[in-house]
Specification:
heterodimer; A: Helix Hairpins; 3 helices; elongated; B: 4 helices; 75% helix
């Protein structure tokens, strides 16, 4: 009983996350500035971290937790590096 | 009991992430979009990771889940601050309804030295 409830809620949550990635991707395409695209990528990375954790919950494989941690780390470094590039380049 | 709590946390967290990304799509300028991208997204991911932490399993997973939350709480404000400052310097336009600009006020009120240290 509770197992099927957990399955259903994880499935619903993954659907919500898929819609979230689509919305952020629309912002990524639309821009208009470079910083807007970085914000959209940041949200997409956070969504993928959440999805990896949900996969860990669904499959019971602990590896996906490490995947989530690594994506969070790389996403932070990427955001900071792109912020430095925007500040140095002053281009849009 | 724990199963119901986990399901609740998972759905609530995913809804918050969806709210964050709809905010990034719909809000009028970069700075309000950053408001949407940092707070709800961090809380949403934290709720989903909390669901993983209270899921009965071995202790290592719970510790790593706690690390993810800690990492997000530490890095989200830093990244948003760097990005917002860089965008302001690069001259990304603000929403016309913006009522307050502390950096411009500080530069206008004189003081001269240290106006770069905001």
């Amino acid at each position: 009983m509770t197992a099927s409830l957990l399955d259903a809620s994880v499935g619903l949550a993954l659907t919500l996350l898929a819609v979230a990635i689509l919305a952020a991707f629309a912002r990524l395409l639309r821009g208009p500035s470079m910083a807007d695209r970085v914000v959209a990528l940041d949200v997409i990375a956070a969504t993928i971290v959440a999805a990896a954790v949900l996969y860990a919950l669904r499959t019971g494989l602990a590896v996906f937790v490490d995947v989530a941690l690594a994506i969070a780390l790389v996403s932070f470094l990427g955001t900071v590096a792109l912020a430095q590039a925007i500040e140095a380049g002053d281009r849009e | 009991m724990t199963g119901i709590l986990i399901s609740l946390l998972v759905v609530l967290g995913a809804s918050l992430v969806l709210v964050a990304s709809v905010g990034v799509l719909r809000l009028p300028d970069l700075y309000t979009r950053m408001h949407a991208s940092t707070k709800p997204a961090t809380l949403g991911v934290s709720l989903i990771v909390a669901a993983l932490a209270i899921h009965p399993g071995d202790l290592g997973i719970a510790v790593r889940a706690l690390l993810i939350v800690l990492f997000f709480l530490l890095t989200a404000p830093v990244a948003a601050h760097r990005l917002g400052h860089a965008a302001y310097r690069a001259g990304v336009p603000r929403w016309p309804g913006t009522v307050r600009d502390d950096i411009a006020q500080r530069a206008a009120s004189g003081a001269g030295a240290g106006d770069d240290e905001v």
